[in-house]
Amino acid sequence: MKKASIFGILSIGISMFSFAQQQQDSTQSRWLSGEQLVEVVISDSRFKLKRENSGKTVIKISQQEIERNQGRTVSELINTKSGIEINGSRSVEGQNLGTFVRGGNNRQVLVLIDGVQINDPSIVANDFDLRLLNLNTIESIEIIKGASSTLYGNAAATAVISITTKKSSKKEISGSFLSVVGTNQTQDDLNYNGSSFTNNVSVNGTVNRFTYLASFGNRFVDGLSAAKSDTPEKDPFSRYNTNLKLGYEVSDNFEITAYASYDKFKTDIDGSPPPTYAFVDTEYEYVSQQKRVGVSPKLTYENGSFQVNAAYTKIDRETISDFGSVNEADSYVIDAFNKYVFDDTFYTIVGLNYGDYNSLFVEEESFTNTDPYLNVVYVSDFGLNINAGGRLNNHSEYGSYFVYSLNPSYSIKSNYGSYKIFGSYATSFIAPNLSQLFGFFGANPDLRPEENKTLEAGFEFNDGKGFRASTVFFNRKEENTIIYTTAYENAITNATVQGSEFEFETSFIKNLDFSVNLTYLEVKDGERLRVPNYKANASLGYDFSKTTYASLNYQFVGSRTDTNFSTFLNEELSSYSLIDLYFSHKIIKNKLTLFANVTNVLNEDYFEILGYTTKGRNVSFGLNLNL
To answer: In sequence order, what are the residues at sequence separation of 6 or more whose Cβ sits closer than 8 angstroms to the Cβ of residue 410?
Structure first.
């Protein structure tokens, strides 16, 4: 099918943006002298605490930041944060993603959606596929790095990505519609044809004590081949997302929320067919779909609350190739917890986390986790804060395992802002998954859980007016790492990864925001493929008015090591730099937002994964209508 060129559409969008800029009156700054901006974080304690009382450098992606990154994917947005490298997010749309946080891998990252652990029990990494997510359905994202198994359980070893989906409007009926059209081209083929299409529609509202939200989204991307070749064949990607969320406030103290979602994507993939087994263009396909239903009742009482998050997830995956496979899995997760605050000083949470995970191999296999846990946060009136807790993991296959955490911090307030020093020592576990215990290749039912021990120390300054700077050092030791030789087994040698992160953000000039983060990583034992030792991100954003915004974003990725599977030898991949531009303008009483993106402005040519295609300069134009 012949695709229309969107270059003209983009030019119209930029012209509208320029005209709007010329028509703007001066507006008040979002930063006012003497105004204190109080930031609240949740993930590291499950309580809404001031950032100065948190012993972690929690990453927050707000609704405003999401709105200013429309047209991007979840993985692309998260990939701009310190300590994180999501490998594959710059390649063909259907590329497998490697979520490398502080030198870890997918198996060491836990994803939560509205407080519920989400993973795929049928896959070796036991992780959640971020390709299934639609950024337009998300309200906010918090990322807490380091060992967090005390509060969140299995796999919370290098990071917890906590995603909160959008809530209903306070109006009786509200709606939104988003549409984006863009290019999808390589560095050598700048044709500027429309090859990327994203649409999302949502209807939501509140009627008396009843809330509702229904949304549907689809994304289709064509134009690139996964394999880097002289005669590339396009590998299209398509995804559909449906979501329904209902809530009812039974009384002032009791409310209940229920939800259901269906997500599916299909992508063409390239592979290594016989007899040569060289990586080439193929007609292979990969299909993944997820069905989720859940319920969350919450009872609030004086100084506390009791809540249950329960969900059922069904995942089906199929690889259509010369070595095709069909995978089926389902899981039942229940997290019941009681939160209570003593005198605004002790914030306590006591809970029981249960998980039942099933997958089909030669026959259906399963395991269960039953974990009681306790966490206490002490917030003093003289600056000392202590976050401590423990969890007893009871696994149906390997027995019991105890993890704990201790996270003290001390903050000092002055006329210039607050200074905070913090440290932590925590353990986490990664349970052997069903594929490793009972799967088709190298299964070992006697595996023990992998243990990670993480030590952190850091400093943060926050003036409460938009300026924040922080630095943190981390050291993580992996023990009993599950590896594959002729079968899965626990490694007898330990591995250590350490490094440091620096974050800086400021809005010291009226309407101008600047942020930068730097990451340094050192692998003390062994080698980590595709993980850079150095990485940097910077962003410069300017509000020309209340309705017009523009940003310039920069990313540097240092050299990495990858395996050349034609020779089975490791090769070093060169470092690269990327520059992106974003423009947005609101019209019709702020109900309609027009926006444009230009990614990889300089058309940098590089390998993200050896032998795979990466994206060249691409442009997109979109609109978001809120009624």
So the answer is: 383, 384, 385, 420, 421, 422
pLDDT averages per 10-residue partition of the chain, 627 residues: 40 39 38 48 81 84 94 96 97 96 96 95 92 96 94 96 95 96 95 96 97 98 90 93 98 97 96 71 92 98 97 96 90 97 95 97 94 96 95 96 96 92 96 94 95 96 90 96 94 95 91 96 88 97 95 97 88 97 93 97 96 96 95
Q: Which of 501, 499, 408, 421 is nearest to 458 (CA)?
A: 421
Label residue 10 left, alpha or beta by phi (over 0 means left) and psi (-120 to 50 means alpha): alpha
Q: How many helices (H) and strands (E) does the chain have?
A: 5, 35
Q: Report pLDDT digits (tens) over 345-397.
A: 999 999 999 999 999 998 999 999 999 999 999 999 999 999 999 999 999 99
Q: How far is the C-alpha of 75 from the C-alpha of 415, rounded, in Å? A: 39
Distance CA 210, CA 168 (A): 10
Number of residues assigned to the chain: 627
- The gap from C-alpha 300 to its chain's centroid, in whole angstroms, comes to 30
Please state the φ and ψ torsions of residue 247, each to the nearest 5 degrees.
Answer: -140, 150
Nearest residue to 159 (alpha-carbon basis) of 121, 80, 106: 106
- How do beta strands 159-165 and 109-113 pair? parallel
Residue pair 209/246 in contact by the 8 Å Cβ criterion: no
Is 183 in a helix, a strand, or coil?
Answer: coil
Nearest to 267 by CA among 229, 315, 222: 222
Alpha-helix residue ranges (DSSP H) falling in 360-474: 434-438
CA 500 vs CA 157, 200, 497: distances in Å: 17, 39, 11
HSE value, Cβ hemisphere, 13 Å, CA-based, for 9: 19
Q: What is the pTM of this model?
A: 0.92
Q: What is the largest CA-CA distance in the chain?
A: 72
Beta bridge partners of residue 598, listed in sequence order: 581, 619
